[in-house]
Amino acid sequence: MQLKRQVAERYRQVNGDHSMTEADDAYVSAQFAVLDELCTAHGCDADDVRRLMLDRRLPLPGYLRSDGAEMVPVDLFALAERAGGTDALRAWFTGHWADEGVGAAEWDAYLSGRYVCLRSVGPATIRRKDELVAAIRAALANLDVDPTDDGTALRLSALADELDALTPAFTPYDRLRFGGPTSRDTYVDAVRARLRERP
After folding, report:
1. pLDDT tens digits, one per residue of 59-68
2. pTM of the prediction?
3. pLDDT at 26
4. Which positions ≥6 away from 102 have C-beta within 8 Å?
């Protein structure tokens, strides 16, 4: 129980202390796995995994359900397996960025557990999301110049669709911990609303 408390404390340091509603719990339960249950399914000890989280070798839970359950991605162990184990994970992960500083920042973000903005978290999807957001911003700027540009509108629609496929729906709790709109709110839903309203 002590390790579970320590993980919960670290989680709240990262995300703040916001209450989960029944709707939040239902969303999280449908999208994520309970850490203890996932560990049982993989034949590993949950406290060993908690130690790896506290040692910054695996990411923190994505959510703490209102009953205290640590909710993690169903593919929590997939990246470590691809890297050849948790000892090799950091180097493997950061090696996907040419800029060491960017790789280190992405590693920190990954460890925070806050990459709940992706259906599947990994260097490729993180990089693709960044590329899509940059492309959407550029297309929006072009649409500001010429709202009647059908080519830009079609490109923007395709970019929003691709980002939609990468990102989950999110839950109201996310808007509290992130302090405002989610990436889906800004780059998928708002973009589609703007496209519907264009002349």
Report:
1. 999 999 999 9
2. 0.90
3. 97
4. none
